[in-house]
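Methods — Computational structure assignment.
A single polypeptide chain was analysed. Its primary sequence is given first, followed by the predicted tertiary structure written as structure tokens.
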Amino acid sequence: MKKKKTLIVAFLAILLLVAFGGSFGSSQAASDTRVVKDNSGKKVKIPKKVKRVADLWHANNPILLMLGGEDDLVATTQLTRDNKLLTRLYPEVKKQAVPFNGQSVNTEELIAQKPDVVISADKAQIETIRKAGIPAVNSMFQDFKGMKKTVTLTGKILGGKAKKNAAAYNEKLNDDIREVKRRTAKAGTPSVLHIVNKTDLTKVDGRKTIVNEWITTAGGKNAIKAKGNMIDVSAEEIIKANPDIIIVGNTTSKKALKALKKDSRFKSLKAVKNKKVYGNPTGIFQWDRYSAEESLQLWWAASKIHPEEMKDVNMTNKVKNFYQGFFNHKFSTKEVHKILNGEVIK
């Protein structure tokens, strides 16, 4: 009987040890982690102190760098590492691994970098990474509200001063949105066509996109009624829309106008005849597409859509102040003029 009681006591002791040991283990694990909510609404558990970040979305890399994450970046994208202006400002990026080439992720190479967290904009990619046991957050956005969430999310991931930098950036973006809207509120709404690049003049950006967001905020209306990024439309649809203004990405105004004049389908468009065709600026990233430079895009677009209402705005100074304030880099006047002309600085 005594032996039986001894066995029961021993068994209970083991149960208590397992129970409390498990609790203590969970408490310890909890104290080493924290939870962030990504842009899809998913709660993701990440280390309390993040020291290694793999950023697999081209557009989010400049945001991460702007917030002070250069030393935390351990993996990036090929497009980011090939960006000569970005790597001139942030030379450490050139040393980082490139597990994402723009098409697919090399999971083995990603795992080898031992990231604390991965930032991505691709749902399928995120699921694959999570299945490999790596925390991954979705930072995709399609409007200014979403962009501010992304900046905040990236700041939270990095922690420390990055959170304050994120708050300062979002405050500036809010101020710029309000001021641009105020200036253009009573100036009418010219129709604006945004063409992705001059090599394919029927690939455009429709509604429910960040492009549509800055067009409308700057006092215009999208000439395209269809929804989506980089969508293919017919030449007939563009001719029917007959936009007042055409903005073309990845080129200069001179080259954009030349391409449209050369195309027999579009040379008679109102914007082409009136020479209201503009190449969109590119800085550290393309201003027109998910860029950390979205504040500058707003002012630039408004200056083209409503030049009278913006004639007192010194874009050169705005560009200089923005980059010095948020990227701690002083561009020369010559460099700023090149950026505003749609030229790519290397």
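Note: The chain has two domains: 31-168, 187-340.
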